[in-house]
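S1.2 Input.
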Amino acid sequence: MPVLPRELAQDWIARWDRQQEGYLPDREERFTALIDAVEAGAGRADPLVLDLGCGPGSLSARLLDRLPEATVIAIDADPLLLALGGACHDGTPGLRFADLDLCVAGWTSRLGLDRPVDVAVSTTALHWLPEADLRALFAELAQVMRPGGLFLNGDHMDAGDVTPALAKLEHAIHDRATRRRFKEGPPEDWRQWWDAVAADPVLSGLRHERERRVAGAAHHGSESGELSTHVSALHDAGFAEVGTLWQNGDNRLLAAVRP
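S1.3 Output.
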């Protein structure tokens, strides 16, 4: 994987964060709530944390700012986002990026863990997975977490299959918050960000590698965007308590405890 200039990576990650805020006007509030939960629930000042679907490491970096004694393994399969994160956060104590596909069985065995995981986190990532892959991921994750370990997932999760009237209100709250935050229009969207990446010659090799991996991926099925799917999959994986710790509209922080 090519080594990118730090300043270039910092600029692209700042731009990534801005386009993500276009979908999540309260993104930083959700980060804060999630890290509050890690701090309160990890049970130690130096937890071992897995960041699932880490992208360029936005959550991992914020978590280590608050908990500098933690060890965070940031996991993703996107070579371009991993390269940006690695270049931007190179030398950050306690942070390691792992290039692994969470949909391929055995991913935990390739992490080189020397103790059980205290906390697993994710943000705006796991909804992309088909239900079968999500269930397999949770089942494998549960096997490497300590008793009492905490799973925290911040994402848009729809409750329309269970509470359709409330789900409609949740979407309305989110839409109104977005309009208030971006009165002059939202920042560039996900597609525009990737189009801009494609136009940067420094990133061309990583972009082609990303396209090669996406073309060769064997993941099948629709996304898992429903809250009930995540709750059911966590219970079936053996997590005991599952519930929402923080919420704004359909933007939730779902938590689960390993018995």
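S1.4 Remarks. The mean pLDDT is 95.
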